[in-house]
Amino acid sequence: MNETSTAEIISFNTDNDAVCAASARISTTEGNSSVIFEKSRNNDKNNGLIKKVLASGHRSVIEHAVFTIALKNVSVYVEQFFIESRLASFTVKSRRYVDFSGAGYYEPPSLKEENLKLYRSCMDEAFSAYGKLIELDIPKEDARFLLPYSFFSNFYCTINARELITLINSIRNGRGSHIAELQNIAEQLINQLSDIFPCISEEFYPAENHTSPYSIIGEEHGILLEEKDIGSAELADSPKEPEKLLKYASMTFGESEKSFKELISDRRPRALEQLSYTFLIKDVTLAGITHIVRHRMQSVIVPPVESAPSHRRYVLPKTVKDNAQALKIYTETVDKFDKMLSEVLKNDELKQHIHYFALSGNLLDIMTTMNARELLLFIRLRSCSRAQWEVRGIAEKMLSLLREDFPELFGLYGPSCYVYGKCPEGKMCCGRQEEMHRKFAP
Fold this sequence. Notes:
Layout: E1 6-12, H1 16-25, H2 33-40, H3 46-55, E2 66-75, H4 76-83, E3 88-92, H5 113-135, H6 140-143, E4 152-160, H7 161-173, H8 180-196, E5 223-226, E6 232-237, H9 242-253, H10 260-265, E7 276-285, H11 286-293, E8 298-301, H12 307-311, E9 313-316, H13 318-321, H14 324-345, H15 348-351, E10 363-371, H16 372-382, H17 389-405, H18 407-410, H19 416-420, H20 433-440
Parallel strand pairs: 5-9
Antiparallel strand pairs: 1-2, 2-4, 3-4, 6-7, 7-10, 8-10
Helix pairs in contact: 1-2, 1-3, 5-14, 7-8
């Protein structure tokens, strides 16, 4: 179980120093962009120029250097930390379709003897229960709620140098500075970047190890909430005069005013970006949060995973509730895990690793702001009958609130088959388009 979490830069753009140096030169140098780039190839002055530009505060030039990182056997906590980087792209192994019974989990190297024994006891208990639920044909997307946030994740991240620096600095001397696993990953990346792209070496903050800045509250007992009781949504803010904003947007683009139907059918519905909506979503599982934060064009606030175990609120999926044997396994596991947490919260060393004791079914509240264009995509994908049930329920509640606020526009929103009259899923289509049309018709 004590495999080393690794982050390997498996791909990067060729001549990235030349590309970034050329971008630094183009604003003050004669010649076209191709000529300037050719003059920047194998130029000994590239690194010095890039460092000088960075020192002056102009960091956009290094956004042209792009890296793809393979993260191997890192805890899902690390995945959550990385995926909150808004200017990056991620592809993650799905917990809805892949059996994680043998995935393994991360063990903090600092844990010894009795503390390590208790840690392993917690993790093994959760993994054993997950495997039993799979054997009982509980869907993987529901069994995963018992997976602890120590379980190994494997994913790809593609990110530009500027955003990567921000991420690494957030680890070394920011909100990740108290996580040893993240510190190790940051060091791996810095060592690789020193060979691949040395001109950014001075941009990294010194590493500072801190204790967890989050207070651990610790409720007395865990609380199980059924499907119907989680994922409530509140529309916290919306435009006061949305139609006026859309009209102004059309005027700015030099276009004639479009109907709402024309707007959502437009291949480039820029006008919709002028409408922003803020939602408070309560009692979302950690697993559900990963579905939401994947949508890049939003401003989302997610509480630290560290806070989830102390609140001890968990989901009880319907497939488990309706299966007596599965229900016994699930409730007993949550109860045992809950009692173990009481011991963890009294142990100063284990408490520093409280994030690994979060279960994927732990519930948190989040806030997000999306514009109407991103909401069109979010609701099309997430209200589809093939979407994960928790996120589908949230999307439908958000849509209901939007329709109350601006029915003329959002009455046209729904799954793809409702919006565009056809399903994009091919062979995976549910075949229930008529039912979906009846369901989402205002």
